[in-house]
Amino acid sequence: xxxxxxxxxxxxxxxxxxxxxxxxxxxxxxxxxxxxxxxxxxxxxxxxxxxxxxxxxxxxxxxxxxxxxxxxxxxxxxxxxxxxxxxxxxxxxxxxxxxxxxxxxxxxxxxxxxxxxxxxxxxxxxxxxxxxxxxxxxxxxxxxxxxxxxxxxxxxxxxxxxxxxxxxxxxxxxxxxxxxxxxxxxxxxxxxxxxxxxxxxxxxxxxxxxxxxxxxxxxxxxxxxxxxxxxxxxxxxxxxxxxxxxxxxxxxxxxxxxxxxxxxxxxxxxxxxxxxxxxxxxxxxxxxxxxxxxxxxxxxxxxxxxxxxxxxxxxxxxxxxxxxxxxxxxxxxxxxxxxxxxxxxxxxxxxxxxxxxxxxxxxxxxxxxxxxxxxxxxxxxxxxxxxxxxxxxxxxxxxxxxxxxxxxxxxxxxxxxxxxxxxxxxxxxxxxxxxxxxxxxxxxxxxxxxxxxxxxxxxxxxxxxxxxxxxxxxxxxxxxxxxxxxxxxxxxxxxxxxxxxxxxxxxxxxxxxxxxxxxxxxxxxxxxxxxxxxxxxxxxxxxxxxxxxxxxxxxxxxxxxxxxxxxxxxxxxxxxxxxxxxxxxxxxxxxxxxxxxxxxxxxxxxxxxxxxxxxxxxxxxxxxxxxxxxxxxxxxxxxxxxxxxxxxxxxxxxxxxxxxxxxxxxxxxxxxxxxxxxxxxxxxxxxxxxxxxxxxxxxxxxxxxxxxxxxxxxxxxxxxxxxxxxxxxxxxxxxxxxxxxxxxxxxxxxxxxxxxxxxxxxxxxxxxxxxxxxxxxxxxxxxxxxxxxxxxxxxxxxxx
Length: 800
What we know:
By secondary structure, the chain is an alpha+beta fold. Strand 7 (189-192) and strand 8 form a beta hairpin.
């Protein structure tokens, strides 16, 4: 006890603002349930596994630790599981994760000799008892950063409910026997609360659902609210009310009154249909995307080095799928596993290793690649039904990588592409741009856009990128006859009021070669200012690569805006071969006999610095119901790139405090702060793109950076009237990896769902000459990898 008393100065009672780690080791994935338990430093409140606590003692000299050990309790194996009724985890009515129960013990340990004192004990000094009590009672920092409960957003009261007009009081809705007024649909019916029309709901992307008659009625009449028939019961709060202008499920406080107008006695109705929220819940509990997840396949489960699953933290599959592919590359494997030990990373880390990206990347790499945690899940292994492994929870990594991005810090589903680009950007930053250390450079390549104007002279524009984003030319489908027959069948089924079964659906098949060819194909640029002709004209743009990266990532643009502002996912198959050759896509630069466009400033820009919005873009946005001024700003701030880009800007900036301010006369002129241009140049962007981005973002560097990443194809367009007069490689180009144009497919990130911000992501990776599926913490040999259903395709360059 005297030894403990002599070290009381190294014991600190935690304050409410202190972050206390007690659930996971800072440098490994050891927990209190691990064989050696967890040691909490009673000075810094950082936690360490048995094999790593000595490193902390060597680095800090802190000798006193609280040892936490959890031992599994014996519980009945036949504990029933209840069906969830709430979209939540770990709360009443939510998902019961059926986790085993553990018994927790505590001891005080003094290093370096591991002298141990039991806790609780009245013999312990009061300061020690107070510190331990505070640690035990505190909410762990891991839990604060990763909420245990995940609950869907609460429905809000509709702005249209209190003053909803109602017409046609001669309309009486019967209690049963409903049918769509415009087709023979008898389910998924919605009652418009203004005029009493009963119409079918939206058509799903796979051909199921309704025939869009309810939403078409709204577009014709602007009657805002509808209630789903079959969801109305005595519990009116459970009824599914949808607001078309608010595009969301809402609460109608006057629903009883609105229903009574049409003679509906809600107390006599019984529930026959699932609400929208229940359908979402049903999708989350029963993923029906068997093809991508290879459900029902007799898959061989795989364990060992490189085959470690990642536990889902709640909508974190976008991160898990991406990381499984990234850490299968030699560059990331070498940087954070083979060539960097956990101890080296810890010694290099600051006082708090949980906030150090280098440390957490090394921790993640060792966790995924060592095989230490690639073991069957305990609770199912003992039952002989092991279809998954425990997996490692990448909580600390997620907290660090998301610290500079508010969306990734949330529990919402995210776009895997957006996360991949953000991840590589952070890796590049943490490695200080060192080509020797930075593994993100293995994905980076140069793009050169060649502008040919009618004068015969050419200009070049260059940029660096991590991905090739490809349009999908549906007109290049190879199964046009089958598609035509399917559309006829579907029309017949619809006319008969029947649904098309999933087995009957035929999707377009587009070769990857057609997508690549579309990227390289010449594209006309309208209203391009030629410095040679000193006038606006139509130029021809082609694009090529100045270097071929070690790893080529292809992004398939499956998400488009449907007519009438509705986002849509293209339901299409991409025929992707195992190997591709993109040698023909290498840019050739200035050719013999060609003459560069002269430098110059467009006369129109000299005459006026007023920003001008493309009226076609503005008109289309206004027709969707948006404010005219807001639409003008959206077009200007996206440099008139297109309706989709303007729509995205508009939705992201509708709450800006200056959204209603008049467009200033010189807000988007030619003059930009050269120091801000230089800052963007230091990030690796080209000067032309940096200037354009700063003009489009009002001079804000952060927004300009986002604009560049969100507009990979907007480097040369109708409003970019200056020409780069050099095609020589930049210093960045010369340092990039380069080689032949032959590549082999080794990774696929697939997405299931109607939007990148919902659904589920799964990774397939080619390892040891076979394909492996990584579905969160499930790792198994792939029987039939969905090569034609990918969202992101990863290729590795073949040695020439």
